[in-house]
Write a structure and sequence with these properties.
The protein is α+β, with helices and mostly antiparallel strands. Helices cover 22% and strands 28% of the residues.
Length: 227
C-alpha cells in the first residue's frame, strides 16, 4: 500500500497495477522483495527511484529498478526463494526491537543442524502450514537448509555484532508461515519437547498438532528471490 501510493504520487497516477513476489506477515522483514509495476508512461529509472523513495517511510526503500518484459511475473517466474530466521541471546536494546528473536536459552547447534538437513528434498509440509490461504498442494521442494552460529546479523544496509544463530532455507516456494513453523519445531527440539524422529515423521504423515509454536515474526527475513 505504501509503495503503490508513493509510485502513484510520483508518476501522477500512471500506476496501473503492482504484483509482489509474495506476502510477508506483519513483523516479518524483506531484504530482497521483488515487485512488478505496470505503468501507463515511461520514466527515467534513476529519477523514478529517487522520487519514490522520497515518498516512502524510512522502513521501506527501493534499491533498484529495471525494465522488464510484459510476460514477467514475480510469483510464477521465480525459481528459488531464500529465507533466514535469526535469534540470539543479545538483550533487547534501543533500535534493535523486532530485528531478531531474543532467545536466552542454551542452543544445541549440532542437533539443530542435523534437524535442518531433514527438511531438504521434496516433502509434504502439511504440518508446517497455517490455513487461511488456498493452495493446490502442500508439497514443496527445499534445495538447502542449514543452521549455524554467526557473529553478526546482516541487515543488508547494516550489521549488528553479537552471538546469533541463523536458520537458512532455500526452496522453490513456501506455504503460509511455513518457515516460522519449521523454526518452532527446531526450538521444540532444542528444548527436548520433541526428538529428531518426530521431525522426520512430521514430513511423512499429517499430525493432529504442530510440533512447536509458530515462531515470532521478528527474526524472519525474505533474503532474496531468484528468477
Amino acid at each position: 500500500g505504501f509503495l503503490e501510493r508513493a509510485v502513484s504520487s510520483v508518476s501522477k497516477g500512471s500506476l496501473i497495477n503492482s504484483i509482489g513476489s509474495g506476502r510477508t506477515d506483519t513483523g516479518v522483514h524483506a531484504l530482497g522483495q521483488v515487485v512488478r509495476l505496470e505503468m501507463k508512461n515511461d520514466f527515467p529509472l534513476d529519477m523514478f527511484i529517487k522520487g519514490v523513495n522520497n515518498h516512502l517511510p524510512s522502513s521501506i526503500r527501493v534499491l533498484q529498478a529495471e525494465k522488464c518484459d510484459e510476460s514477467f511475473h514475480p510469483v510464477f517466474n521465480s525459481t528459488r526463494k531464500v529465507y533466514k530466521y535469526v535469534f540470539g541471546s543479545l538483550p533487547s536494546r534501543p533500535f534493535l526491537e523486532g530485528l531478531f528473536l531474543h532467545y536466552p536459552g542454551e542452543v544445541q547447534s549440532e542437533l539443530l543442524k542435523k534437524a535442518a538437513q531433514v527438511f531438504v528434498g521434496e516433502h509434504d509440509f502439511c504440518n508446517y502450514f497455517c490455513t487461511g490461504t488456498d493452495v493446490a498442494s502442500t508439497t514443496r521442494k527445499i534445495f538447502s537448509c542449514d543452521f549455524r552460529q554467526i557473529n553478526y546479523l546482516d541487515l543488508g544496509f547494516n550489521q549488528i555484532y553479537g552471538e546469533f544463530y541463523e536458520f537458512r532455507v532455500e526452496g522453490e516456494g513456501f506455504l503460509k508461515q511455513m518457515v516460522r513453523l519449521m523454526v518452532g519445531a527446531l526450538i521444540a527440539l532444542n528444548e527436548g519437547k520433541v526428538d529428531l524422529d518426530d521431525i522426520k515423521t512430521s514430513l511423512q504423515v499429517p499430525m493432529r498438532q504442530k510440533l512447536g509454536p509458530t515462531a515470532p515474526p521478528d527474526g524472519l527475513y525474505l533474503e532474496r528471490v531468484d528468477y
